[in-house]
Design a protein that fits this description.
This protein has 517 residues and is α/β, with parallel strands linked by helices. It is 38% helix and 20% strand. Strand 15 and strand 16 form a beta hairpin.
Length: 517
Amino acid sequence: MEVTSEIERVETLFHRTKENFLVLGSAGTGKSMLLRKLVEQSHKNVAVVAPTGLAALLAGGRTIHSFFGLKWGLQRRDDLQVSNTPEAQDNRRRRASTLEVLLIDKVSMVRADVFDAIDALLREHGPRRDAPFGGVQIGLFGDVLQLPPIVENNVRQAFNGEDPLGWQSEWFFDARAFHRASFTRVTLTKAFKHSDEEVFANRLHRLREGRLQPEDFVAFNSRVSLAELHDAIAVVATNDQADNVNKEKFDALKGEVQTHTAQISEDWPKYWDFPADENLDIKRGARVLLVANIGGELVNGRLGEVEDFDEEQIWVRFGNERHPVRRYQWEIPIWGWNAASKRMEEIGKARFNQVPLKLAWAMTIHKVQGQTLEADISVSFGLRLWSGGQAYVALSRVRKLEQLHLRREIHQGDILVEKRAADFLAEPDSLPCLGEIRAKAAEIYKVTRELRDETRDKAKHAEAAFQEMLQLLKQCQDVEAGAKASAERAEATEKRIKEGLERARKTSWLNRLLGKF
């Protein structure tokens, strides 16, 4: 994962300050990867929560309701809907009393009343009573231009600004706790998911913000196809549509039904969704989606068709190739705080064993949120869309325009952007907060001190090297002087030898001369 300046800023906020922060960004900008990285590298007692079971599973955390023991329903600060069994109360106290950081993934789906309930419960059970969020650092991750929080018709009046005890809207940023606490806002801008198709990514970005250009409508609507697409997943608006399509297609197949039942470890958290169906019915000819990376080209999100099966495996045709798919075991880390080492550590693994396939003639827009599909998709919006972000979530699940097929043209009326979300998103990122400035100053001081110490060490080494050089130079001079003296002595000796030889020669010559007489 490339460390951009925005990612570096979030890491500083998390690791080196106690400031609350909000991380925004469109699909594919690395929000989920960054969250997991922070947890893995944390030296703080951190918990991860998310609004849905699937989001909690992907983030490796718990659902908000299970972590805090919340019941379903409207949460008022003076009337929190919580489980008050002794076990639930003890769990709340135990989890919150030593908690240092709470990271909330998919925060755009967290309703304002639930956000305020989190604050109320942490104020009651957190390390600093009555401080915002009980003194726990809060990190939020999400995209407010994707699907908004769900509001049931019977509580809608609580979120229209008319109820004095209610909220201006259902969004988390209209919760009282969000305004009472200070959140440093950072927007991730570099897209990783669609890097191989920049033009398509830019069109999706404009769709997300509700500012499609005429050429964008032309490009998207060029993908309209009413033909029956055998190799595409139908992305539909409602659960009923998806269930009906899958059941109708499955029942129409002839032949034997094979049922596979998942094996689930006892420590599998109850608040997690399963990564595959607990009971999977298969027939020959069934269209299936691979829901795990099992090696090579068999990656999560690939679409195939069941050709045959036996007791050991299911033969699935993916494209032009036929592959056996066997039972697969998911091993998902369970993180916990080690008070002795003062860091987050893996305390176990939850295991889920099942054939990694899912019937996939159709899926809902909500179900595909947060996923990248390798297969083609056939998007059916029906007569109209009714919620902000639906068109964007549906169309941004694939990497390339060529993977996209529409059952009807997209019109301006389909591009719904929640006004409250758009207004919030229009606000700029936060200036560096005091905690960031202090952390940066401490980092500069540390680097400066290291450079100073390094300079001193280098100066000491340089002085020692200089003294050693002087000693070597003196030794060279001594050797040179000794060599010169030796050369002089050798020269004098040579001279004496020559003189002696000359005297001897002369003496020998005289003796021979006298001998003749």
